[in-house]
Design brief:
Elements lengths: L2 E2 L2 H20 L4 E3 L14 E13 L7 E12 L3 H15 L3 E8 L8 E19 L13 E9 L1
Parallel strand pairs: 2-3
Antiparallel strand pairs: 1-5, 3-4, 4-7, 5-6, 6-7
Length: 158
């Protein structure tokens, strides 16, 4: 019997899959990683886009019900090689996110933890663009990955 993931993991994995396919179809050499820390790994070179589910807000759908709605906060950090590339990646990613993307239910097939199956099951929509800003790091920073950074924070729902 397959092991199905929770809605939270499915939202994060669906977002990662969507951005990975969009970046691969329009950009060459951009690495997508699933956490901010992985962007700083020595074996990962610029440009890098780091995506991570940061926060979950839970609210009741309506008074008197036990049904809930989850809102997920996703942080997308861009590490570019130039200021122009930073701006171009920001515009590209915002334009990809604005119309939403497919929500997949992910599962491990029976007996396999290395393989993931996915089945489309709805749509993910951006509730709001919370932040879209250049990250100012001291000019004395020794890490080249910090020179042309940008953060996009979105709140999504299934």
């Amino acid at each position: 019997m397959a092991q199905y993931f929770t809605e939270t993991r499915n939202c994060e994995l669906s977002t990662l899959y969507y951005l990975e396919t969009q970046l691969a179809s329009a950009w060459s050499g951009v690495t997508l990683v699933k956490s901010f820390n992985k962007a700083y790994a020595k074996d990962v070179s610029l440009p890098v886009v780091a995506v991570a589910l940061e926060d979950i807000s839970t609210e009741r759908r309506e008074i008197g019900t036990t049904a809930i709605n989850n809102l997920y906060t996703i942080a997308i950090d861009i590490f570019a090689t130039s200021d122009g590339m930073r701006l171009d990646l920001v515009d590209f990613i915002i334009n990809q996110l604005k119309d939403g993307w497919t929500y997949y239910i992910y599962s491990h097939p029976s007996g396999s933890n290395a393989t993931l199956d996915k089945t489309a099951d709805g749509k993910i929509r951006v509730n709001s663009f919370v932040e879209n800003t250049r990250v100012e790091i001291s000019e004395y920073s020794q890490d080249v990955k910090d020179r042309y950074r940008h953060t996009i924070v979105i709140e999504i729902r299934k």
